[in-house]
Amino acid sequence: MLYIDLSDLFMSITVLSGVGAVTVTIPQSQYEYARGDNITLPCSFITTATITSRTQVVITWSSLTQQTPIDEVVIATYYHGPTPVTDIDTDYEGRVSVDVDVTQGKANMKLFSISLADNKNFECRVQIPGDKKGKQTAITNLVVLVAPSTPVCKIQGTAQYGQNITLTCASAEGSPTPTYSWKHYCEHNQPDGILSLYNISKDTSGFYICTSQNKLNAATSSMNDITTGGIIEE
To answer: Which residues form the signal peptide (predicted)?
Structure first.
């Protein structure tokens, strides 16, 4: 009589029919680079599946807007197989490439000559047949650093003795958003670039300097003799 251990048979069936799990990771939640840099956004994955040259692995990089509702744009899609194929979105042609090695779990994306338009979230997605559990995606935020442009200073109100006026200072560009400070004999820090002066007098007239600054650099602009509204840019 043939004896079969049903517990062993059940265990074998469980192992054979089990579903794999993939885990996708990006080392940092945020990366900062200067405008014009060529960069690599790293992405790696581990899987319990066996990958061969014929395994149909699909790796996708997408950009995600930071506003709600989220707008997703597929930038690059890599199709692994006997003859690997990479599709690049037409808006990114010449600016994007992928650096993929599925046997090593590498799924990096390279961005060339980054601009302020690349201030976005980016998602790496890995899809493997039979590997439907686990964590298939990872997201990181790219911050493109841009030094503040020379701020423009303006006077709001009538620059006459006894009047109330507001001095404004703003840079047309800068990433992260610049903070501002004013100086007139003593320092007046105004992070939003607005300095209000009340009941102006001889003591408040004169030379004012506005500094626009972020972590990359600083730019200054000055206002000479607010009683005449003269503006000097440096």
So the answer is: 1-21
What is the pTM (predicted TM-score) of this model? 0.72
Whether residues 40 and 135 fall in one domain = yes
Same domain, 98 and 26: yes
Which residues span the domain enclosing 141? 21-145
Number of other CB atoms surrounding residue 87 within 10 Å? 12
Report the mean per-residue pLDDT for the chain: 81
Claim to verify: residue 52 and residue 123 sit in the same structural domain: yes
Are 49 and 20 in contact, with CB atoms under 8 Å apart?
A: yes
Please, what sign has the CA dihedral across residues 143, 149, 153, 156?
negative
208 close to 228: Cβ distance less than 8 angstroms: no
Q: Tell me: the pLDDT tens digits for 50-99?
A: 888 888 899 999 999 877 788 899 999 999 988 899 999 999 999 999 99
Say if residue 212 is in the same domain as residue 111. Answer: no
Q: Any idea how long the chain is?
A: 234
Residues 38, 127, 120, 111, Cα dihedral to 10° = 10
